[in-house]
Write a structure and sequence with these properties.
This protein is of the alpha+beta class. Helices cover about 40% and strands about 35% of the residues.
């Protein structure tokens, strides 16, 4: 009876240790920064930002339906928050470094920012596309595109066949005009 109790106690400890995973994830970072002072955050439905041109193929319209929403978190760099900028940049770097969930797609230098693009899911059926960027003159941020079984080639076709909605852009600008 004592052996059964010891085995049960050991299994309970193992289960509890595995359930209390403190590893940083992008989702926990997005939740943590929501409403945090100095951060601009938004959850944007794709339909409010992009509109498909009426003469595009049905598969492009289907691809747009596979994209659910966009999450945005951005911390502008100022003289007053240089230490916070460095901490947040390093937090995001650690989330993507040696991560089994996100696979690196590309890295580039874009408008004085270091940008890395990652994806999650299978190559032919992506569930997330994430762009992480930082720059000394701009700040640090992450944009996550969520969807269901997004086809990368169709996403590229979609981006070539969509236009930014004027109202959608104005809505985004209003979100980021918080003082």
């Amino acid at each position: 009876m004592k052996k059964i109790f010891n085995v049960f106690a050991f299994l309970l400890v193992v289960v509890l240790m595995n359930s209390c995973n403190t590893k940083n994830s992008l989702q926990s970072y997005l939740v943590e920064t929501s409403g945090k002072e100095g951060f601009y955050t938004a959850d944007i439905p794709l339909s409010s930002v992009l509109s498909v041109e009426s003469d595009v193929a049905m598969d492009v319209q289907e691809t747009m339906k596979s994209v659910k929403k966009i999450n945005v978190v951005f911390l502008p760099k100022t003289a007053a928050n240089e230490a916070v900028f460095t901490i947040e940049k390093n937090k995001l770097k650690s989330i993507f470094k040696n991560n089994d969930t996100y696979k690196s797609l590309m890295t580039m230098k874009l408008q004085e920012m270091n940008v890395s693009v990652f994806y999650a899911g299978k190559t032919a059926a992506i569930n997330e596309i994430v762009a992480f960027g930082y720059g000394d003159s701009n700040g640090v941020g992450v944009v996550r595109l969520l969807g269901d079984n997004m086809d990368p080639s169709k996403i590229i076709t979609l981006l070539n066949n969509v236009s930014m909605s004027k109202n959608g852009l104005d809505d985004i600008k209003n979100v980021f005009k918080i003082i």
